[in-house]
User: Which sequence fits this backbone?
């Protein structure tokens, strides 16, 4: 079985625009929530899947592998029976926590301006977000 390349595709705009590079890393339906969950500490695959209701195993696997290829998530496989796999943020991935908090603040204001009655906090449980 051939291994899949999860690294970012060549995009000259990405190299010319730091914002584009950042958005490329966090772009994906589940990536912001995966990053949030991992900012809380080391997680096993099944724990992540349980926290992200609605994510399929395939989608979670692909997005975790992409985050790993981008250097923001570390995957550790323990040679046990059954095999244990854990995911955690790399130091570079940890730097995204502040970025994600700012995006959440902006998004809540945006949703309120758009008339959403209650802008939900997707990054649950963080007392430092949202005022």
Assistant:
């Amino acid at each position: 079985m051939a291994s899949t390349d999860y690294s970012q595709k060549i995009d000259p705009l990405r190299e010319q625009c730091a914002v584009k590079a950042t958005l490329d890393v966090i772009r994906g339906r589940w990536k912001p929530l995966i990053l949030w969950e991992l900012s809380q500490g080391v997680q096993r695959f099944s724990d992540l899947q349980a926290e992200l209701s609605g994510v399929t195993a395939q989608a979670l696997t692909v997005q975790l592998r992409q985050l790993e290829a981008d250097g923001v998530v570390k995957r550790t496989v323990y040679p046990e029976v059954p095999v244990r796999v854990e995911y955690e943020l790399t130091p570079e991935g940890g730097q995204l926590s502040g970025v994600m908090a700012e995006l959440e603040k902006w998004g809540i204001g945006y949703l309120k301006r758009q008339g959403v009655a209650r802008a939900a906090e997707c990054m649950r449980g963080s007392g430092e977000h949202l005022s």
